[in-house]
Automatic annotation (TrEMBL):
PROSITE patterns named in the record: GNAT
InterPro entries found in the cross-reference section: Acyl_CoA_acyltransferase, Bact_Acetyltransf, GNAT_dom
UniProt entry tagged with the keyword Metal-binding: no
Gene3D superfamilies: 3.40.630.30
Record protein name field: N-acetyltransferase
Species per Swiss-Prot/TrEMBL record: Gemmobacter nanjingensis
Amino acid sequence: MTLTIRDIAPADRAGWEALWSAYLAFYKVDLSPDITAHTWTRMMDPASPLKGRLAVEGDQPLGFALHHHHCSTWVMGEDCYLEDLFVAPEARGKGVGRALIDDLRDLAKARGWHRLYWHTDEGNARARALYDSYAPYDGHVRYRMKL
């Protein structure tokens, strides 16, 4: 497999949306098309901190890593939050997820960000096996309040 990881570009919209749709289906989430369109618009806005990396083989998108950076009260600098990571089912087990995380780690280091972090569902054993190879589970529990 010849894998390339690069910034998501305007021409990638259809491929990204197909992956995004599969990602939402995996988590059994039904988002309004307006939210998907808004997410895309923010990723394409140079002033927005929300960015995306795309794993492709040839012209076939295989996965994405959506991330943003922010200031932190725990370091004298910024952290990078990997908000969404997804690999197409047919590409799983081929190193695409690892390549996306490695790429984002390298990008974060190059930009001087201090930490890279993410969350996943407790029962997502396959993803957790990958994530555990990077860092141990830190015991934190997430709470989300809808407003």
